[in-house]
Write a structure and sequence with these properties.
Blueprint: E1 4-7, E2 10-12, E3 18-24, E4 34-39, E5 45-51, E6 57-59, E7 67-72, E8 77-82, E9 91-97, E10 108-112
Amino acid sequence: QVHLVESGGGLVHPGGSLRLSCKASISLFSISTMAWYRQAPGKQRDLVASITMGENTDYADSVKGRFTISRDNALNSVYLQMNNLKPEDTAVYYCNKIRNLAPWGQGTQVTVSA
């Protein structure tokens, strides 16, 4: 059973940047596609970005051109570089697989506010 630990969130002004990290307890060489999700207060958890083993990426329309997902299999880590942040990006961010979801981690809070 893989355990996931997210970090890197914080409070940032609109237009600012953050880099989120996700550390997995098992080798990412065994996981084909990893993803970042987010959940805003009172809303469902949504898929934000995904990355395959071959480093093909996909993004939600709302973050295209602003967010970049990457992975380092040797470090069992997945990252989300977030630029030009907007207030509507405020949410708890989680990483997980695309299929056969692992137990959710605690997430990392991102707050974008002036």
